[in-house]
Amino acid sequence: MADTMIEIRGLNKYFGDLHVLKDIDLTVRRGEKVVIIGPSGSGKSTLIRCMDYLEEPTTGEVVIDGTPLTRKNHLEMARKYSSMVFQQFNLYPNMTVLKNLTLAPVKLQKKSKDEAVKTAMAALERVGLAQKAGEYPQNLSGGQQQRVAIARAMCTKQPIILFDEPTSALDPEMIQEVLDVMIELAQDNITMICVTHEMNFAKQVADRVLFMDDGQILEEGTPEHFFTNPQNPRCKDFLNKILH
Amino acid sequence: MLDGLFDLSRWQVTLGSMDTFWQGFLVTLQVVVAGLALSLALGTVLGVFSTTRSRVLRAVSRVYVEFYQNTPLPVQVIFMYMAGPQILQAVTGAASPVRIAPFVLGFVGVGLYHAAYVSEVIRTGIESVPRGQMEAALSQGFTRVQAYRYIILPQTFKVILPPLCNQALNLVKNTSVLALVAGGDLMYRSNSFVGSYGYLQGYIMACALYFVICFPLAMLVQYLERRAKLRPRAKAIPGIAPDAAEEA
Questions:
Q1: Which of A10, A25, B44, B225 has the highest CB neighbour number within 10 Å of its CB?
Q2: Cβ contact, residue pair A96, B132, below 8 Å
């Protein structure tokens, strides 16, 4: 199918004896925005990390745009298709904001420095941080760092951006500025997979919400479905806790 | 005996023999530079080995470090001095034992020895970089080698520079082991000066000259330690107004 971006088939992941992901099947369309929710330890981060091959599936496969990820091709695939925004931002602290954004385009995609800087400044403009281009990450607030991290993911122009709890490490007053950037980014035709507990974000951008617990996808549907009519008792219980 | 230390004529003789001391000083400096280069290169490789996922590479690094850290440097150097020529003969198939120049013996001796310590410094430096840095690099599509080169190793500089300079300082002092194998270095020349005149001034002169190299290094260590604690200042980027307006 031409409009399938990510296809996960029979994915299992063990950490030692711990069975973290149990027979996951999932298809994500090109340009779809998917939000994954669920209690901690439910396997949602592991799932999204498998899509970037930061975790190697024990069995099953992750197919990106028709090509299965393997130990051999995953770096090349990451270069071409996906970038990740992390809970802890993971900006490179020894480089300025601008250098953080231009490093991969220059070294990996062989862009000229001028071109990379131009793209980077446009991305920074978009997240509202062009003024901070010469600053070092540690001198920025958490919210600003995460916006830079999102800009970094934008700079490499991959069609998939994976968000692994992008607002969980932030002070409450900084969450909205990051969500605003993500909401704005969602207007682009990129495929976004986002692990988060921010249901308002889900309501605004998600085409589909997945609820995970105990290594399985227990329920999926539109955001409205989750607000009005969740079926699974564990899902109801979880939503009660985060919405009230 | 100690009266001699204050004997002006003995000092005159000592200062009159400065040529000898300077020659030794020069040899010591050369051994330091070459030894430092060897220990940094080998130590970095071994340090990176010890943080890779490959068990074989980790084991190579571990065995090397434990061997060199737990045997005395003079023993290592004297062994190389005695056994080295014969080993080289066996390896190269030469007709007679291959003589190793004292200079080579010196820098290889301290270089190999300090590589073990440098390796440990590099290892702790790399381990101080959060795992997330490697993950961010991999998720952008950098290979592990590229990630080490562009992202991980540069981040360790601040942390490892002070202990590395400390190693350099120790290496300078440890080059005096060369005196044991007639290396022509500062310690050796001082020793032979004292041996021929019986004037202890020779050792004082040696101390002073070692101090001249080591003291600036010690100051450098302190400076680097202070600097490592500072926050980086923003860089000016052409076309971007500095931040002041926005903050006000």
A1: B44
A2: no
